[in-house]
Amino acid sequence: MTDTAAGPAAAWSGGVATGVGSLPGVDPTEAVRTVLRELPHLPHLPELPARGPGADMIGRAVCFLPDLHVDLQPAGWRLVARPGVEERRALDLLARDLDALEQVAGDHDGPVKLQVVGPWTLAASVELTRGDKALADHAAVRDLAAALAEGVAGHVTDVRRRLPRASVVLQVDEPSLPAVLSARVPTASGFGALRAVHPPAATERLGEVLAAAGTAGAVPVVHCCAAEPPVALLVAAGAAGLSLDARTLTAGRDEALGGAVEAGVRLLLGLVPAVDTELSDLATTLAPVRSLWRRLGFPAEQLPATVTVTPTCGLAAASPAYARAAMGRCREAARVLAEAPDLGAGRGRT
C-alpha cells in the first residue's frame, strides 16, 4: 500500500480537469499539443489506438513487461517465448509518444498524468501459451503483476527524466476488475467463466503496481469505468485517487466513497460523454457530482479540492472536433466547481 495522506494534495491543485487517456487520431505530437491546450493544469500522455496493434491498451502493456513477451494472435494478445513483430511495434509507438511529450511539454512545471493497464485487466485479457487467459493461472498472474510493477517504475522514472520540472500521476486502468471479482471473465472457449478472484488477492496484486509507482515518485490513481467499482478495495490497495464514471455511481457506493474522501483520496469523476453527442449545459453536466456531494454530506468548499473533472472514458471513439470540445467542457466544468462550489443545500458531514 502507498501513503495517500500527502501525495494527492502535492500533485495537483483543486478545480482542474484531465483526460482519461485515449484520443482519436494518429499524430502523437499534435495530440500532446491538443491536450496541453485544452487541459493545461493536469495534461495526460495521450494514447492513440487508431494507429493499430501496439497502440491499444493491452498492446501498450507489452512495453511494461520486462522479461515477458506478448504477441498478437488471431484470438488476441498471447504470452510467448520471445519478442515478435507486434511487441517491437508497441515499443516503437511508445517511444514516439514519449519523444512527442518531451518535445512539446519538456518545460511543463506542473503535474502530468500517464496511463497503464492494471494487472487484473491485463490478466483477464492476455492468453497463456496454451490458450486460456492468464487469469486462470495463479503463477501467471503473479508474474504479470511483478513484471508490470517493475515496468511501471521504469516508465515513471523515464518520464520524470524527460520532464524534470513536472510531477507525475500514474493512472492504472482496471475496467475488468469488477468482472474478475465476480467470475464474469469468460474462458477461452466462451462456454464458461473463470473462477472469481478473492478480494485480498486482488488487493495484493494491484497494490504491488501502485506501490511501485509511488516508490518511483508518482501519485497512483486507479481508473475503473465499470458500473460497480470496488471502491474500498482500490483504496486498500493504495490508490491516492479514484477515476470513476460519476453518472453510474449509486447510493450503494456512498459509504465507501465517503470513507475514501475522509482518507484524503481524490475523486476524478467522469462527467462529459466520451462519444459524439450534443453537450449539455454546465449545470446539467455538473449535476451528478453535485448530487453525489450532497449525499456524501461533506462541506461544499471541500468539493473543488477533492474532485477533478474528466470525460466518462477515453475519447478514442469520438471525432477530433468532439474530443476537443469534450476536453474543453471538462475544463469549464472544473472552473465552475472551483468558483461556485456551493451546493445550495445540506449541512457538512459530521
Textual characterization of the structure:
By secondary structure, this protein is α/β, with parallel strands linked by helices. Helix content is 43%, strand content 13%. β1 and β2 (76-80) form a beta hairpin. The protein starts with 6 loop residues before the first helix and ends in an 11-residue tail after the last helix.
Compile the SSE list and pairings.
Blueprint: H1 7-11, H2 28-38, H3 57-61, E1 69-73, E2 76-80, H4 85-105, E3 111-117, H5 119-123, H6 138-162, E4 167-173, H7 177-181, H8 199-215, E5 218-223, H9 231-237, E6 241-245, H10 254-262, E7 266-272, H11 282-296, H12 303-306, E8 307-311, H13 320-339
Parallel strand pairs: 3-4, 4-5, 5-6, 6-7, 7-8
Antiparallel strand pairs: 1-2
Helix pairs in contact: 2-4, 6-8, 8-9
Summarize this structure briefly:
The chain is α/β, with parallel strands linked by helices and 350 residues long. It has helices at residues 7-11, 28-38, 57-61, 85-105, 119-123, 138-162, 177-181, 199-215, 231-237, 254-262, 282-296, 303-306, 320-339; strands spanning 69-73, 76-80, 111-117, 167-173, 218-223, 241-245, 266-272, 307-311.
